[in-house]
Amino acid sequence: MGKLYGFVFYLGGVYCFYIQLIAFKMLNSATETSLRKIIHCDCDCFFAAIEMRDDPLLRGRPMAVGGSSDKRGVISTCNYEARAYGVHSAMATAHAKKLCPDLLVVPHNMAKYRLAAQQIRDIFYDYTDAVEPVSLDEAYLDVSASSACQGSATLIAKEIMARVHAEVGITLSAGVAGNKFLAKIGSDWNKPNGLCVILPQQVADFVVELPVAKINGVGKVTAEKLQRLGVQRCGDLQAYTVFELVELFGAFGQRLYKLCRGEDDRPVKVSRQRKSLSVEHTYPEDKDSLSQCLQQLPALFAQLNQRLEGLEGSYLVTKQFVKFKFSDFQTTTVECVVAGSIRLSVYHDLFQQAFERGAGLGVRLLGLGVRFQVSHDSYGEQLPLFPYDLTLHG
Amino acid sequence: MKFVISRDALLKPLNLVAGVVERRHTLPILSNVMLVLEGNQLSITGTDLEVELVGRVALEQMPAAGGEITVPARKLADICKSLPDGSDIEFTVADDRVTVRAGRSRFSLSAIAAADFPNVEQSPGSQQFVVKQGDLKRLIDRTSFAMAQQDVRYYLNGMLWEVNAGHLRMVATDGHRLAMCTLEAPIDAAEQMQVILPRKGVIELSRLLINEDQEVEVVIGSNHIRATTADFTFTSKLVDGKFPDYDRVLPKQSTKAIFGSRDDLRQAFSRTAILSNEKYRGVRLLLSDGSLKIIANNPEQEEAEEIVNVDYAGEALEIGFNVSYLLDVLAVLSGDTVKLSLSDANSSALLEESEQGDSRYVVMPMRL
């Protein structure tokens, strides 16, 4: 840094300020990315797992989900019993049956898979808003700012795995690391139903041994080329300068240079459509009167407004609601339909109605919220052209 | 090295070659174009290591000696563009400087030796064919809009070229819609070949195909493709990946066939698009005997409605689409009539000029 500033002072005023600004920004983004905690979740043989969950006869034997062999169908997903025979996704069903004559192929039931995927996604959203779904059965979570599980990404991953098993009835594997690249490798490391945590201090040793074929984007041709160069592991690749890699692999060379060192600063791209937004507070002492509750309203309202501003008007508010938790731990929610921006007077009325429901009980928690127009009604959902391929290449 | 060239002869190839050059790069030399002088032929080369483009132009005045050097691409192109029409430009190379003179203007540009300029690696060609530039351009223009942009499925950020004996087919898809166009051409091919051209390569190649009636020679190798015209040689790396099986998503048994005026439909869709959601662009199509009603709503609760007469008799259907996807197709189709084939609200639509047309477009609906 010192060197750069020395150079900067040599230049004129405005320009100097500009460069300082860039330097500051670089520093800033560097600290932002170095502290990230990313989880990559990947369901184990998703379609097959759902079918096995719903039909015990499919368990403990080789089975697959896909198109039937007489219609030139292709395997989408198969279970681990079938994989032992060499069956894999994207294989022609007719060929798969040759490898494994006992293979039972069941047709797709996309509606069912979509429902399960939604349930799993809802579990993710309990831990962070920063969820980037890659396909139905795969997503990246940025839990850097999450306070769940004392902020431990490892514990969050464990809890997600347990909850998906209990609530959806299938298993998923998770990778925890400081970036998307390593998290994705982690989720594949101990599959199925496995967890792999790559701590920042382990990254250097981990990547040295990592086979280059594990890098996303290294396909057959690139892998063969690397093989010819005698490069098998990322450690071998580290011997090359960025210039050499760019010469050899074009634009991808720059990325390879970073990846083989375990570096990847791609952000988790959030695509969530919120259904609601709320703020709430539990008080050390119960509020025993309506006026005591109303005293808290302006602060909560300001907090809610601040959160709404963060969304930059990308959502349309359709309802305002309040949530009360009484001293007996019973919870009640009162809501009303509104249009346009939120109003304090509406919450005032809702507080009154909610307090009356307690029939004299003290209130330990107060919450304010809004519901948004559900995207399905207003915007619609674009259907994919290759629903099966999403899992094939995931 | 010293030579004189007219501004008008230099400008076109220089602009096209400079278009390949990235503004910022890890390697400073990649911001440069290489000028090579052999006899009275000047070749200009630009590369981003994925795509390489060589433009050739003949000098009117025979220079004293040949040579090679590299200079900043953007700056040189900007200088030539802003010089007056009809100027003669003189280039003089001395040490690490290139001096550009025209009339009373003089520019001294920093140069890097041509020896450091990288080549796009060549692999032996395994498939070769010659077609008219206009035919190749038509294939690209009819499909390139459907290519994905920065998709994690990197093999979609490009275009599939499928070479078979007697025909060349191009397919592009972003996972929501697909465009496909086929050219009958005298191609010898023992077996089918499928390669994926990167998005940038497709766009740059299309710009070179300016002389419709002249030929272009295409050579495809295991990891590169090269196209040569009289004035240019274009080389691009291929994308290392597997393109999805497009045949599986072509609707084959649509239950409803609708014929309508392409222009009427295009205008009705562009008007309804105004009041569709800016981000999601959903419109509802209500199909009934003889007419298609198109409705759009936006979050401000505004509404647009259009009714277009169509040639259709059968059961009614309500189906949603991203209006941009439909407009993209209607913009590249020609002919008065368009055929739209549908089945139900969750199945893809097929758009064609007619069954005999060379192009087919598949659009997945939106659930509205």
Q: Gist?
A:
The complex is a heterodimer of chains A (394) and B (368). Chain A is α+β, with helices and mostly antiparallel strands and 394 residues long. Chain A has helices at 2-10, 13-34, 46-54, 80-83, 93-99, 110-125, 153-167, 180-189, 203-209, 220-228, 234-237, 242-249, 252-259, 290-310, 344-357, 375-378, 389-392; strands at residues 38-43, 63-66, 75-78, 104-106, 131-135, 138-142, 172-177, 195-197, 276-287, 317-326, 331-337, 363-372, 381-382.
Cα radius of gyration of chain B in angstroms: 25 Å
Q: How many beta strands in the DSSP annotation of chain A?
A: 13
Bulk shape of chain B:
elongated
Helix content of chain B: 10-25%
H-E order of chain A: HHEHEEHHEHEEHEHEHHHHHEHEEHEHEH
Q: Tell me, rounded to a whole number, the average pLDDT of chain A.
A: 83
Task: Write up this protein.
The complex is a heterodimer of chains A (394) and B (368). Chain A has 394 residues and is an alpha+beta fold. Chain A is built from 17 helices and 13 strands. Chain A has helices at 2-10, 13-34, 46-54, 80-83, 93-99, 110-125, 153-167, 180-189, 203-209, 220-228, 234-237, 242-249, 252-259, 290-310, 344-357, 375-378, 389-392; strands spanning 38-43, 63-66, 75-78, 104-106, 131-135, 138-142, 172-177, 195-197, 276-287, 317-326, 331-337, 363-372, 381-382. Chain A has a 5-stranded mixed sheet. In chain A, helix 6 packs antiparallel against helix 7 (153-167), helix 12 (242-249) crosses helix 13 and helix 14 (290-310) crosses helix 15. In chain A, 34% of the residues are buried. Chain B has 368 residues and is of the alpha+beta class. Helix content of chain B is 18%, strand content 43%. Chain B has helices at 7-20, 73-82, 133-143, 199-208, 262-273, 323-332, and strands at residues 2-6, 32-38, 41-47, 51-58, 67-72, 88-94, 97-102, 105-110, 125-132, 158-164, 167-173, 177-184, 193-198, 215-221, 224-228, 232-237, 256-261, 282-288, 291-297, 303-311, 317-322, 337-342, 349-352, 359-363, 366-367. In chain B, the strands form 3 sheets. Chain B has a 12-stranded antiparallel sheet with strand order 13-10-11-12-24-23-22-17-20-19-18-21. Chain B has an 8-stranded antiparallel sheet with strand order 5-2-3-4-16-15-14-9. In chain B, strands 1-6-7-8 form a 4-stranded antiparallel sheet. The longest helix of chain B has 14 residues, at 7-20. Chain B is elongated and about 80 Å long. The termini of chain B are far apart. The chains are: A alpha+beta (394), B alpha+beta (368). Strand 13 (381-382) of chain A pairs antiparallel with strand 25 (366-367) of chain B. Chain B: It comes from Dasania phycosphaerae. Chain B: Its main location: cytoplasm. Chain B: Keywords: Cytoplasm, DNA replication, DNA-binding, DNA-directed DNA polymerase, Nucleotidyltransferase, Transferase.
